[in-house]
Design a protein that fits this description.
The protein is α+β, with helices and mostly antiparallel strands and 401 residues long. It has a single domain (21-399), classed as Beta-lactamase. The protein is 30% helix and 20% strand. It has ten helices and 18 strands. It has helices at 32-45, 89-102, 132-136, 146-151, 163-171, 196-210, 214-223, 274-285, 298-305, 374-399; strands spanning 21-25, 49-56, 59-70, 75-76, 83-84, 154-155, 191-192, 246-250, 253-257, 260-261, 271-272, 289-290, 293-294, 316-317, 333-335, 340-347, 350-357, 362-368. Strands 1, 2, 3, 4, 15, 16, 17 and 18 form an eight-stranded antiparallel beta sheet that branches. Helix 1 runs antiparallel to helix 10. It is globular, with a radius of gyration of 20 Å. The two termini are 34 Å apart. The relative contact order is 0.21.
Amino acid sequence: MLPRFLGFISLLCAASVALGHMTSSQSDIDSAALDATIRERMEEAGIVGVGAAVIVDKQLVWSKGYGFASREKGTPFTTDTMMNIGSISKTVTGVAMMRAVQDKKASLDEDINRFLPFRVVNPHTASRAITLRHLATHTSGIQDRWPVYEASYRFGGDSPQSLGDFLAGYLKSSGRAYSRDNFLVAQPGEQRSYSNIGAGLAGFVVERAVGEKLNRYTNRHIFQPLKMKNTGWFLSEIKLANHSQLYVAQGGITFPIQNYGLPTYPDGGVRTSVSDLSKLFITLLNGGEYQGTRILDKEMAEEMLKFQFTEDKKPQNVEVSGDNASNSGLFWTTKFNGTRMGHNGSDPGVRTMMLCSLDRKIGVILFSNTSLGDEAMGSFVMIFEELWKHAEALRDSTSGS
């Protein structure tokens, strides 16, 4: 997945961490070897805290926390620990978008300018309209100009700039940050280039279509119905005592960083726990329903997760910092050479994964509250792979094979 903060420093650390604790288990499979491997990989990469969950056949079958939510306070990282999850937040924006479509307040394939207080037009190719489907598949032609995007992060609190003001400044032809370089030289739908700002625009279109801020809309239609009690968008609306400290490693030293916010919050602003996110993940894998509570019609959930392109009709993928998804749903992409699908997240002090098998039989969620550079990322991926093997073992044990 494309890191959402490309200018952030490279990381490498060898700090040690303490043993996490089990929060739930539904299998008699011995996980001692898994625990040992995770702790070893955390130590070698300098990861302070980890939370993880395994889903098999649309059921949460295992979850656990390791290390610290706050190393300084000795607070353990548990599956109820909150932290921001980076671009996995886009899946929440995707669910809100599909709910607006379901309620006939928006359409995936109409001009987004119908809803906006300012016009968005690609100056290179003004003849074709941009749609929500384009934004949700990263084929709108809008691209992130990193000096502008990075400068929008507000460390120490929520962003004082509104989503609409940021987008107007970036996309409106008279805006302060407007540039022709904010757009690809391509018609909407022709090229795929991962865009955080495009995702933020999708969230803004939803806000305008439903007449409600996205944080309130998602709270009413997603978080409350699914009883996601440790989930919110802004620091001002969550219990800070439940929020993890975030960390960065540099030169063999791991240090804490301030919490932060950003105006384009629909692209990466969700703060949640492994336990809460498991509920949403299962909901999506289960056609929009969780334990009798339906937040999306099955048709809408299936449309969000299904591949939007065919092999003979796919947009050209523009290489951007390693984001090379082979296909795409709506804020839902394939990873690991097309063998898994879901979403990843990356931000200062944050690394997350939420991926499932193509048949949706296995799902794994992994949170880390520590930023990792290229050299240490291998350890994070190895943790994920160990969790995937554990998921396969749990699946095999329940199927009797």
